[in-house]
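A.,

Following up on our hallway conversation. Structure tokens first:
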């Protein structure tokens, strides 16, 4: 039934029209780029209808020198102290003058402020844990970044432990993960491009690369494959790997995942691309240049122990493919004098 409603569009072409799929999945979001109501009364009605049955949504209206200002945020996604110090306190100490969106933007200088114009941008900002502020009569709203989503602090790598080198590992916070890479590559040539994937999840996915080292065609290919993804929700890096892969039946992996920022840094400096997903404690690297290795191989000096550690996994692979079958043939074949002894 879903495919029949898309007249003139074949089933195989659905991935090229994510906005049409989103409109069919939820009829209330067929026009996400429409502007939101400019008046506070109409805006409150729209927000309550859009976020109905969401008891964690908070709506607060304040009076700033005669101007009606509406604040909308989600409980549990906002740092209460930052909101009081960076939003409520500056609003209460504004000098008496005509209040408009530009005046508020300059007054709220202690938090990161961004303007939004459409309903979709409004909903995404609230879902990200930001406070949305709108002045009565304004066609634009301000998003105030005082978010504090639940998460854990940076810890040691559990799946790829090492005795030498850094002990930090990625966490489920995308901003912290990108900061761990910025900490190691202090250059404006380290590029981070973000995009949203998922009709409902609106998951933040970023492509990280070093300009001047990576091939531009490789970056464009990664951009295009991520743009072609059309899915309800993207919350797993393994699902992302399946959607961008092009060789599902190969015996060798086409992507590499790690939880160590130092390994990602080394891969970026080799001309590879890192793909990071918000909520995933690992990072995916493409393309794959090697299949065997250890996490501490880049930390050793070039001496006998380093060569031994690098060649050890390859010797294990050769032994498992060649030596074990040969030994099995020797054991299974009877000796020539066995039959004579039994006779």
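Then the amino acids I'd put at each of the 343 positions:
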């Amino acid at each position: 039934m879903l495919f029949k409603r898309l007249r003139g569009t074949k089933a195989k072409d659905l991935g090229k029209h994510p906005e049409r799929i989103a409109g069919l999945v939820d009829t209330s979001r067929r026009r996400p780029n429409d502007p939101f109501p400019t008046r506070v009364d109409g805006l409150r009605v729209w927000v309550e209808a859009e976020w109905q049955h969401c008891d964690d949504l908070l709506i607060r209206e304040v009076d700033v020198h005669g101007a009606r200002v509406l604040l909308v945020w989600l409980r549990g996604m906002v740092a209460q102290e930052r909101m009081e110090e960076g939003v409520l306190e500056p609003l209460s100490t504004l000098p008496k003058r005509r209040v408009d969106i530009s005046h508020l933007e300059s007054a709220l200088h202690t938090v990161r402020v961004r303007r939004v114009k459409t309903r979709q941008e409004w909903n995404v900002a609230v879902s990200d844990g930001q406070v949305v502020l709108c002045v009565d009569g304004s066609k634009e709203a301000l998003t105030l970044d005082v978010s504090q989503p639940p998460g854990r602090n940076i810890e040691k790598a559990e799946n790829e432990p090492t005795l030498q080198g850094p002990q930090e590992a990625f966490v489920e916070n995308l901003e912290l993960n990108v900061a761990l890479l910025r900490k190691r590559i202090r250059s404006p040539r380290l590029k981070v491009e973000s995009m949203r994937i998922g009709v409902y999840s609106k998951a933040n996915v970023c492509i990280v690369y070093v300009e001047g080292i990576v091939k531009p065609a490789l970056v464009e290919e990664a951009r295009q494959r991520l743009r072609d993804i059309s899915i309800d929700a993207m919350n797993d890096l393994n699902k992302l790997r399946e959607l961008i892969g092009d060789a599902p039946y190969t015996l060798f992996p086409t992507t590499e995942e790690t939880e160590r920022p130092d390994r990602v840094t080394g891969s970026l400096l080799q001309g590879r691309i890192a793909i990071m997903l918000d909520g995933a404690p690992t990072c995916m690297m493409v393309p794959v240049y090697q299949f065997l290795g250890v996490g501490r191989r880049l930390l050793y000096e070039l001496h006998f122990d380093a060569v031994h550690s690098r060649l050890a996994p390859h010797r294990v692979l050769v032994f498992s493919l060649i030596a074990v079958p040969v030994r099995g043939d020797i054991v299974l074949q009877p000796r020539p004098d066995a039959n004579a002894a039994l006779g």
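Residues 174-286 form one domain. Curious whether your intuition agrees with the design.

B.
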